[in-house]
Specification:
mainly alpha; two-stranded antiparallel ribbon; 2 strands
Length: about 180
């Protein structure tokens, strides 16, 4: 559900906002996920808790589904494998840090209340994510062009049909 939702939102908003639609979707999803995560603290029934967790996970998964698309748009083909490897490494590190921080908070700060520790861990990360996405969206929207907000220029060696090595300059507009 989250990948089709992200794709539909991306296609609908891209017509009007260009490349700035993706950071906008990500920032909006992060902002919506904040009340969903806080609601886990105030629910009184287990079915409400499962609903709050489900809504939270759907919203954050929808936001994260756009990251690979943005990386493909921003990074030239010769560098994509390296960037995706770095991105995967960072995701792995931060995926491990979240439970570690929540566990430490649960043990030492909030009297073993795991939901409260998770919320204390999640909310600041979502606020930072929403702010970064908003900055990126407004930076891209300020330029009012259809080129990606970030770009890289590099020389890629290619072979011409006459077997003479040539250099093809691939450049992307800097924002």
């Amino acid at each position: 559900g989250s990948i089709p939702a992200a794709g539909i939102l991306d296609r609908l908003l891209e017509r009007y906002h260009g490349y700035s639609s993706r950071p906008a979707i990500m920032g909006l999803a992060a902002a919506i996920a904040i009340p969903a995560s806080v609601s886990m603290l105030v629910v009184s029934r287990i079915d409400y808790a499962f609903t709050a967790v489900g809504v939270f996970m759907f919203i954050t998964a929808t936001a994260n589904a756009l990251v690979p698309t943005m990386l493909q748009d921003l990074i030239p083909a010769p560098l994509r494998a390296r960037i995706f490897a770095i991105w995967s490494f960072l995701v792995s590190i931060f995926s491990a840090l979240g439970p570690l921080i929540a566990g430490l908070l649960s043990d030492f700060a909030v009297q073993r209340n795991l939901l409260q520790a998770i919320t204390i861990t999640i909310v600041p990360a979502l606020i930072v994510s929403a702010c970064c996405s908003a900055y990126s969206k407004f930076r891209c929207a300020r330029k009012r062009n259809t080129s990606p907000p970030f770009s890289i220029a590099l020389n890629v060696p290619t072979r011409a049909t006459t077997s003479v090595a040539t250099m093809r300059h691939i450049s992307f507009k800097l924002a």
